[in-house]
Amino acid sequence: MLSENLLKHINEQVNFEFYSSYVYLSMAAYAESVDLSGFANFFRVQAQEELAHAMKFYDYIFQKNGNVTLDTIPKPEMNFESIIDVFQKGYNHEQLVTSKIYKLADIASEEREHATMSLLNWFIDEQVEEENSFNSLLKRVRRSEGNPAAIYMMDDELATRVFTPPAPRA
Ligand SMILES: [Fe+2]
Ligand SMILES: [Fe+2]
Predict the structure, then answer these.
(1) For position 167, what pLDDT does the model report?
(2) Which of 64, 98, 108, 118 has the CA that lies 20 to 30 A from 140?
(3) Per the database entry, which stretches of residues form a coiled coil (predicted)?
(4) 108: Cβ–Cβ under 8 A, 6 or more apart, which residues?
(5) From CA 9, how far away is CA 15, in angstroms rounded?
(6) Which residues surround ligand 1, an ion (CB under 5 A)?
(7) How far apart are CA 123 and CA 8, in angstroms?
């Protein structure tokens, strides 16, 4: 059984993960619009990952005998100045996600809700990867500024990214 407060925050996180998926789908659309289909593929896969995150919290709520409450998904930003701007915003977004996961972990730990902490530990580790992946891609696109050959090489590389669903919880 989850406390009302924890349940409310986990439901908010379900919504926020759906929003994250929307944010990356918007970035995929921008990449398509500037003919960078490899970058678009990267963001489409990212959007799928965020859906999987939403479903991980969604499933967890039911496992703990709680009720899922779905809310409106906010409209994502659709205006980007450049691919650098996209990665800067993606990196900022992941840092915001991390702060939300930490806030959830603070509540779970105050309540000594060990099962939720175990779930959140998975997300804490995942966020290290997420931030690192966005930060290193941001650095690479910055270095490649004004060098179309380097951007197209990255585009080819990012075209190969495939979605791997996260392992289900036991
Ligand atoms: Fe996520
Ligand atoms: Fe993420």
Answers:
(1) 79
(2) 98
(3) none
(4) 6, 116, 117, 120
(5) 10
(6) 17, 50, 53
(7) 18
pTM of the model: 0.95
Ligand nearest to the CA of 94: 2
Q: 97: CA distance to ligand 1 center in Å? A: 7
CA of 124 to the centre of ligand 1 (A): 10
Two tokens, residue 68: 């899922």
Neighbour-count burial for 101-120, b at 16+ CB within 10 Å, e otherwise: beebbebbeeeebeebbebb
Question: How far is ligand 2, taken at its centre, from the CA of residue 5, in Å?
Answer: 24
Per-residue model confidence as pLDDT tens digits over 5-35: 999 999 999 999 999 999 999 999 999 999 9
Instruction: Tell me the one-letter amino acid at 104.
Output: L
3-class SS of residue 121: helix
Give residue-wise pLDDT tens across range 155-169. Answer: 999 999 999 998 776
Q: From ligand 1's centre to the CA of 94, what distance in Å?
A: 8
